[in-house]
Amino acid sequence: MRHSILVTLCLGSALFVSACGGRSDEAEVERALKEVNVIDESNLSDIMLTVADPNEAVAYFRKSVAADPSRIDLQRGLATSLIRAKKPAQAAPVWAKIAEMPEATHDDRMGLADALLRAGDWDGAEEQLNKIPPNVETYRRFRLEAMIADGNKQWQKADSFYQTAAGLTTKPAGVLNNWGYSKLTRGDYAGAEKLFADALTHDSGLFTAKNNLTLARGAQRKYELPVVPMTQIERAQLLHTLGLAAVKQGDVTTGRGLLTEAVDTHPQHFDVAARALAALESNVAN
Question: Where is the signal peptide, in residue numbers (predicted)?
C-alpha cells in the first residue's frame, strides 16, 4: 500500500510540473519514472537475495549485470546468488571482478576468499585474506581465518580465531558448530561435544549441530541421544547416526538396536537406515 502511494506521489509530482508548464516537462516525467523504477528494482533485488529460488536469482542478476556491468550492487547480487545456488567456482571470478572495482570494500575481498574456500582453493583464499589489512577485525574475517588455519592444521591458531569470531557475532551457532567439527576431526571428542551443545543453546533448530553432537557422543561410546529439542524425523535420523557410530566402534549389537529403533521411529519408510540395518544383518549372518 505504501509503495502504491509512493508511486502515485512521484507520478503526481511529475504531472503537476508538466501542468504548471513549460520547463522540460518530458524530462521531469522521465526522471520521476526512473526514480520509481529504482525503487522497484531495489525491492526486487532484496527479494532475489533472500527468499527467491537461488537459480532464479542467478538468472535475474546475470541479466541485470549484462545490461549494466558497471553496477557493483548488481555484481554483488550475482556473486551472492551463485553462492546460494552452491556454485562457488562460478562465484569466485565474479567476486574477483568486484574486488578490483573502485567502490570495492574489504568485505568484497572476503567474499572472494569465502568463494575460493567453498570451491576448494585454500591457497587462493589465504592469499586474498592476506591482502586485507590486519586492523580489519570482523566476524567474517576471523571465521575465514579460522577455517584457513584448520586446513593448515594450525590448531592453536584455529582455536584462537574461532573463539574471537564467536565473540564478534550475536548469532555464534554456526561458527561454534564449525569449531566443534574441527575438534571432532582432531579426535577431541569431549571438546567437540561441548561446542556442539553450546551451538544449540544459541540455535536449537540447527540440525547439523545436533547430528555432530550425536557423532561426538557416539565416538565416546555414549549411546543415548542428546537431550535437545528434536522432531520425530530428526530423532530417527539421529538414531541412525548413533547406530552407525556404534558399529564403527565395534559395538555391533548396540548398533543394530539403534538402527532398528531408527527404522521404527521414522514416520515414513526410512530407506537409508533400513539398508544399513539389512547390510549389517547380512554381514553378521555371513
Answer: 1-19
